[in-house]
Amino acid sequence: MPALTRSSCGRPTSPATRERQWEHYVACLILLLTLLAPQAAWAHASLIQSEPVENAVLAAAPESFRLSFSEPVSPLVLRLIRPNGSAVALGDARLEDATLVVPVPPGLGSGTHVLSWRVVSEDGHPVGGSLVFSIGAPGAGPPQTMDTGDRPVQAAIWLVRIVLYAALFLGIGAVAFRAAVAPLPRGAARTAAVLMLLGLAAAPLSVGLQGLDALEMPLAGLGHHIAWATGCSTSYGATAALAALAMALGLAALALRRGAASATTTLLALVATGTALAASGHASAAAPQILTRPAVFLHAVGIALWAGALLPLGLILRAGGPEAAAALRRFSALIPFAVLPLAAAGILLAVVQLGQVSALWTTAYGCVFLVKLALLLALFGLAALNRWRLTAPAQAGDGRAVRQLARSVAIETALVLAIFAAAATWRFTPPPRALAEAEARPAAIHIHTAPAMADLTVTPGRAGPVAASIVVMTGDFGPLDAKEVTLVLSNPGAGIEPIRRKAAKTGDGSWRVDGLIIPVPGRWTARIDVLISDFEIAKLEDAIDIRP
Question: pTM value?
Fold first, then answer.
């Protein structure tokens, strides 16, 4: 970012002035680094557990389907695909905490069925999947399903997000610069107005695109009311409405004469900007929300205050004169009050979303993060070049330096837009925290016989160190005070003989096996030996799928 290091005559500035300049650049460095923190809306709810479990073979049709997610969801599309390929729409689903309970239609026959589901989580992002199960015996194979992600819709969502970020951060940020630092040069004012007008058009369009993504409809579906209604029904509808309000307030502040009324309207626009991004998104929906939502708010406002100042400050410095020095001094004095909250918010969000350092290179989310880091380093390097090579000659009236500084400001603006583009890509990459939650989901089966039944849960449901929890009951769902419970796991296909572990009874009446290691993934045979009395033992056996 350009800075003033000499007077207009080329003489060195005073020590006090140089100290203020260094404070300004240290603050900007902290701000640039904290912009690496994830923004608010890039992920999805994860399916943690299902009943029936994936690839289960049931003796009879279940009474209901139960889908447990990592956070509360709302159903968008629920359909059951029968063995003959016909589809049945499912309705009357109800939510119990974060578990979606779906009634089973009557008359399910034998064979392999697919429960296809698509839901929207409280962070406003749709996610879908399929659950394959069989009744009686598996059929020839599950009905074929397709990847319904629509590339044109995703591309449109990405482009509209970039426009919204530019409007909120560059447009409203420039208006905030006008209120707090200095009047906007004509070019900066015109650019801010155009960006906010584009944002006002993009905000409602983004709602329709959200509905298309949620319903897996193509772009042509924008002509259908259901797409817009669905988009509005998600939490993202509130984000789009608040974003539109923020841009309308920004335009109103820009139209007002610079003064108290304009400053008040600008403040409301900044509040609406932060609230818009905190209203939806996985980061704001993550626990504890009492911390994450304010962090997203502060992060968004801080980005607007920095990015929005880039173009007007550069144009003012290019023009030179006493106004340039005064604007830089005021900006340097005010920016720390945005930097410190932004730094704290950025660190918190980065810790919540990334989880661990290795996620930077082992996940798609982390790779996008690294791309954003490279762009930010390039931006700061350009700012340093302006600071030490171009600003002083430009202030001294060097026409060549002025032209180079103008090109530099244009490149900085392009880098900012590239950073927005990278951040918009997070819309399609779940953060490592969500992936870790999905990875930790348990494997579970229910085994029912006449003398006894058992619920077996293996956590996490993947190969490696696990813990097993067992709940035993009588065959008619009554309490069963077993004398002893033993878990036996075997995998004949992998040449693994039975692994026997006695379970310990816990205070809540369940049984638990700790320190268990499942060496390989695949379909295992789980047998639970329940010693009902000294003379009676029930052996409950079924298959359980263990993930890699």
Answer: 0.62
